Amino acid sequence: MTPTPPDHPGPVPSPGPGSGPGSPTGPAPGPGPGSVPGSGRPISRKSLLKAAVAAGAALPLLTGTVALARDSAGRGRSLPPTPTCDDGDSPTHDQIKGPYFKPDSPLRTDLVTPGTTGTPLTVSGYVFGRDCVPLPGVLLDFWQADDAGAYDMAGYTLRGHQVTDSTGAYSLSTIVPGLYPGRTRHIHVKAQAPGQPVLTTQLYFPGEPRNATDTLFDATLLMNVRGAGGGKEGTFDFVLDVEGTPGPGDPTDPPTDPPGGTWAPGHAYGPGDRVTYGGVAYRCVQAHTSMTGWEPPSVPALWARE
């Protein structure tokens, strides 16, 4: 199905809660030296770098961001043993989901299926809390256009969700999305830490001519992208507006026991499955394998109360 309406039917909406603290509520003054023009948001070192990359500037490899540190691997540099987060970045900016989102995407990290054409693309990175602690168990739901710029609204081609591993890392195998009227190349994603609000946003590609004319384009959402054989590799690190997970040995205060019910962690649930939790009935709306922290009341993206 070839989409006809663009993802931005009207003016760009005002930044939401996921846009980070300090967003203006009234008319923004003229951009200062520490803000993104037209947004009033402070510019971090990573934001300045990505804006320069978007403009096509030739920049040396800099340190201080996880994505750039990982990208140095192909240049013979050693990688740090653990991800670092010391750039002072605000939470990842939110964006509208557009008209082509579908719930109940399959659980998978590889969106390429038999018959899929296009330039191979891998996207990897980490998900951090605002205190720079990597977040395990974050639900990431991706969807995008195919090589011809069309979204599959009948099935789940180029759609899928996954969860970050114990180090907060994720990896996606897909293709470079095609272009369609009104939009530059982009990948949609929803991100939700267990029991936390959903961040809906989009990832962009550097050096795209349409970046300059797409009214939704946000330079802070640019991936770092490089060639890899016959395909491309992209990296992007999400920062969610949540506190990091307590480390080992940090007790819950006060200790609590989960309420009873038929829901259980470690079980594979599918759309339509019904469970009870804390005396309330819930219906599964998206396939997933349950885990502690994803109890039905905490994850409306997975469970609907009946």
What does this structure look like?
The structure is a single chain. This protein has 306 residues and is mainly beta. The protein folds into two domains: 36-239, Protocatechuate 3,4-Dioxygenase, subunit A (Sandwich), CATH 2.60.130; 268-305, no CATH class. Helix content is 5%, strand content 22%.
Please provide a brief summary of the model.
InterPro entries: CBM5/12, CBM_sf_5/12, Intradiol_dOase_C, Intradiol_dOase_core, Intradiol_RC_Dioxygenase, TAT_signal. Helix content is 5%, strand content 22%.
Ordered list of secondary-structure elements with their pairings:
Elements: H1 45-54, H2 66-71, E1 120-128, E2 139-143, E3 159-163, E4 169-175, E5 186-192, E6 199-204, E7 224-228, E8 231-235, E9 238-239, E10 268-269, E11 274-277, E12 280-284, E13 288-289, E14 303-305
Parallel strand pairs: 1-8, 1-9
Antiparallel strand pairs: 1-4, 2-3, 2-5, 5-6, 7-8, 10-13, 11-12, 12-14
Radius of gyration: 20 Å
H/E element string?
HHEEEEEEEEEEEEEE
Count of distinct structural domains: 2
Round the mean pLDDT to the nearest integer and report it. Answer: 76
CATH architecture of the largest domain: Sandwich
Low-confidence stretches: 1-6, 8-40, 53-84, 246-258
Strand percentage, roughly? 15-25%
What's the count of strands? 14
> Helical segment tally?
2
CATH class of the largest domain: Mainly Beta
- The helix-and-strand class reads mainly beta
For the largest beta-sheet, the strand count, sense and barrel status come to:
5 strands, mixed
Structural shape: globular
The rounded distance between the terminal residues' Cα atoms is 33 Å
Name the CATH homologous superfamily of the largest domain.
Aromatic compound dioxygenase
**Fraction of residues in H or I helices:** under 10%
In the CATH hierarchy, the third-tier topology of the largest domain is known as: Protocatechuate 3,4-Dioxygenase, subunit A
Organism: Streptomyces spiralis
GO molecular function, one term: oxidoreductase activity, acting on single donors with incorporation of molecular oxygen, incorporation of two atoms of oxygen
Family: Belongs to the intradiol ring-cleavage dioxygenase family.
Pfam families: CBM_5_12, Dioxygenase_C
